[in-house]
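Researcher: Go.
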Amino acid sequence: MKYIKRTDKFLLILSIVLFIIGLVMVFSSSNVTAYMRFKASPYYYFIHQAVFLGVGLILFLIMINLSSRTVGKISHVLMYAMIIVLGVLLVFGKSKNDAVSWINLGKISLQPSEFAKVITIFYLAYYYDKNKNNLNNMWTLLKPLVPCFIILLLIMLQPDLGTSIIYAVIVGTIFFAQPMPKLTKFKLVTLLLCLLLVVGLVEISGNGKILGKRQTERFNIKNPCDRLLTDGNQVCNGYIAMNNGGLWGKGLGNSTQKYLYLPEPYTDFIFCILVEELGAVFGLVVLLLYVLLIYRILRIGNNVGTNIAKSICYGVFVYLVLHISVNLLGIMGLIPLTGVPLPFISYGGSFTVCLIAALTEVQRVYAEKKLKSEKE
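Model: Structure:
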């Protein structure tokens, strides 16, 4: 209980408010699809999301009482377990939406790559804290990137472009945030940029040989409403939903685009339904809550003393920023759609549980810092 009492109350309240908004919107955006498309109860997705939040609450109560270093040690084992799971998934998994990303467990599906993101944050944070006095050694610095690269490759082979990019940026952010020599950092950044340039040139010259046809087609983001009956369907109907909402919305539950115009309005495009029903003003309120939350996590990261705490906070900060920006830019047609969920709001068990785990570790490092300050 001593750590629960010392959690950051502002961050906790913001998280709870966003999760409540998300739960309400999952019900409002999914009830029509559940009933009309799948012949299920209108409460089907709402109940499932509530269960996911309940599981997340149990996980919070467990993790908040484990030290950040204990979680780091556990993540070391989970990291290699994740490589095995992703490898087995590629061999025995079944394709869904042209990607082998899900493990089906009856009525529940798990997405291992979502767990990989959070596990990797804890793993890298623990490793670099443990070896903080030996980061002048190049092998010590690069060693933890080997399992990260294997996981990245396995995710790319699914193929899941959006998750691959987010995972790579999370790893890169934590890596370059470490106190390594400036010359070493300059050499590594230069090498990375050269590799990206080579990959880009190969992709252009090979006409989509690396990404594949499906991923290449997603880069066609111009005028989605001209392709309403083909690959522009979702983005165009998302535009219509947000336009229908205006400033103040049509009222909670009164969306028209959720009537099967958007295939899965409770996942990637849930923000469009939120704006349609509650208006652009409320949409801006949600964005403000996001800004406050990620700013708070960044501030905690800047104020905690240990290297592991900073790495965890910076990793979770980037994790959230990427998910929010990639989702919103995708539904607005500014970047290709990647199937990335919107934090707190979108339906999804794997992401919800992982998000709660990530936020719990931020709370834990804050509580550890506060308890240490009280003793001093």
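Model: The mean pLDDT is 87.
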